[in-house]
Protein 1
Amino acid sequence: MSSPSPDAESRSTIEMQKAAADGVEPGPPPALPASLEGTARPGRKRRGKKTTASRGPTALSKIRGNGFEGMWPTYLFALSKSAADPDAEYFADPPMTPEEAEEEKNEIYSPDLSFVERMQSCIQRFRSRRRLQGDRTYYFNEYLFLGGVDTNPGSFGGLGRQDLQDLTPAERREATATDVIYGTTAAGDKFYNGDDKIWSVDFANVVAGFISVTLVQITSFDLAKMAVGIDTLDNFLRYVLHHDVCPEYQDDINAALQVCEAARVEWPKIRQLYNFLPGHFNLAAAELFCSKETAENSWSFHRFKRPEGFDAKSVFFSAFALMDEPELFERLSAKNPKLVKEFTSSFELVQVFHPSEDIIKRVKSLVIGDSAGKHVPIGKATFKQTTIQDGYVSPHVRWPISEDVMTLFFDASLLDNMVPGMKATMDICELDAGLRFVQRVEIIVPSFYTFLPQELMRGYKPPVKTNRPPPSVHDPFAEEREE
């Protein structure tokens, strides 16, 4: 590529100046070299940005929040009070125009449409109105899976910007949606197929199953992360009620919201129970009547911080001496109690009996020797037999006692964190004097605990016909040799 020499440019300039001085009109500019011709490009017209008003009377601002503002959980004791902003601006959907309200009522969520069609549209519109990101998207997808909704993107479903630019917002939302409720045999065995013998519409149980099983596993029992998952479900359920998606299930959705409220209360209490079990009384009983090896192998006793100068005998007998249990105290004092039975079972909490104010005063005024004893007031709780399902086939365990209800004793601080309906699997020891105490706690679950069969379908793949013989004890490598 060549360019004009400096001498040529200066001569051209001088000639133009002379022509102007003589009053002669200058001629056309000199032609560009052939190497520079055709390189100029026409300028592109700059597209102006659309304003919110031009996008529609109820369009959402592009700098809006994600739809979950002001919902950070202040109820979690594990978080500091400064972690939540009490003055946070709560999010609200913009008002709908009469035309949009009419469209939702008579077209999108029309009673003439099936529940499957209405709910699928609701899920798609909820995603477009809420900026689900990160963990919220993951939690919401897991919740929908438990409800039989396929959230996996379809193969070859990618669409470019040019493919979407001529579509209306509703058509664009439907074209890019990944949530599918089949409601037919196309769902296979993994998702909702409309078979009333296998599936039922139950908002409350799906929410309970997600919060009590799935959410605990995917968050590793992190209360802050669990709160985000609960708020995501709460927001979705209120969206369903607000837009009148399925009025025939309004009571069921309200029950699901009550499950969310119960979860906010019970999960922090269960965390406290895990941290402070077995308590002073059960620790003293285990040290007195169980072998040292048994107590050391119990995870409950590993977590519990043993107080300095802890006297098991003093704690155990003073607890009954100060309680209103004269008959039991007499049997324990009359002879040397011995361990006669040990058993494991699942229990459901029926009722909690807190120590009275009189008992609390007695404990505070207790003096042993020259110093006040480090004792805590003791109360009791009653339990009945139950089953905690977990997807495994467990043999039926008979109720090991003749009474329908079992009474166990706990520190008052533990009773404060117990809610009737909570379930637990525990190892119980029984003395010949009739006293039973907790030796070990395996698991504690909330009152709304629900294990859904859909949990077992996560890794399910439909069977495929094959001619390859399966491996066996006689030929363990049969599958590898077959081509």
Note: The longest strand covers residues 339-353.
Protein 2
Amino acid sequence: MPRRPDPVPTGNAAAPPPVPRGVPAVVVFTRDLRVHDHPALVAGAAADGVVPLFVFDDAILGRRFARPNRVRYLLDALGALDTALADRGGRLVLRRGDWTHEVLDVARAVGAGTIHLSDDVTPYARRRIDALTAAGPDLRVVAHPGTTVVPPGTCTPAGGGAFQVFTPYYRRWLEVPRRPVLAPPRSLTVPDVAGVALPALADLVAGDPSPDLAPGGEPVARAALNRWVKAHLAEYGDRHDDLPGDATSRVSAALRFGCVSPAEVEHKLRHRPGAEPFVRQLCWRDFYAQVLAARPDAAWGDYRARGDEWNTGDAHFAAWCEGRTGYPVVDAGMRQLRQEGFMHNRARMIVASFLTKDLYIDWRRGAQHFLDWLVDGEIANNNLNWQWTAGTGTDTNPHRIFNPTVQGQRFDPQGDYVRRYVPELDTVAGRAVHEPWKLPAEVRAGLDYPEPVVDHRAAIADYKDRLAALSARRAR
């Protein structure tokens, strides 16, 4: 068995690991690109010198997961992090190459005794941490909390293991003692070690980012979150599904890259009026993290397999990807994704249901397309939410079906969201925009907009027949 990194106690028992005197440390940044409430950075700063390090991992850059939207946000966040470290007398050391090799090379170049980093739950992140830990006894690897409110494994059912149902997890999650929220280090001393300059986007990934991509970085994220809290937190519970008004926080990308600390956000908001629905969303994020920690195969495999024989045709999938399905609210969501690298959460549920129920296309194809474009794309939240919609996840409800027309009429009653992203329909007034197939023939003829790729009622009837056949097959 590989040697595991040293865990840091959490909750009321939190205590930093002992710091060897006269020996520097390395703090490896991953999905925690901030200085506020950063346990690994605080621990590293207590050493006699610390190297804040980020490694551009060639194994990630060479895969489809490295996409222009996320890499653009990453570069913004790294630039902001370097500035924040410089304000404290430090700097961010950048390397590129094999992640494990570069981290160990820096650690040995400065004679570090400890490598600090934030723990993570994705299978690839776990392999990287394990590789560091296996490098030898001369380097201590300490994995700190920092990417969730409550670390996976802290919140467990009475019988042990991991929670499979959200509601009991949420009740237990609310009771778990929180670790202290940490102030940034006041000063840093960085040993001399070689690094590379912050690269340009084109040096890392091919292609252009979405035209309306939001900027990244800790200062921008903290300011945006503070503005949202003042303007919308109290009404979030009532308005978070409002498509045109969009009272959502849009903090998901900042959480994904760790430009804000989920623990700090929860600490600041938990007891504020109207905060419970938003805090519950933070808990959903933790819930899926602990699911993936317990079941890493669920990253791309069905959590509960049904034996689906998904449709494999490319024409319907292409129409969905391009926002040309003929269902306006679906198309608006898919075009928002390409335009902004973001999609409203209600729209995400609508388009995911349409792909997996109306078109009966494998959720993995939809999850991958989301990861191609979403700035906030991360395996646990993205893929397990897709499984929730598809009916293969922890909450096995295959009959959770979103009627795209009804959803549009309910959450975009005047059609403003649709017209914002589907300009072909901007001359169609009011609720009529959700059913363009009912417009007079002469009006439809003037619209450069497709007919529905499937009839919703017939498609769902076929879907239910498939489910019944799967159920009968399993019962044999």
Note: The longest strand covers residues 50-57.
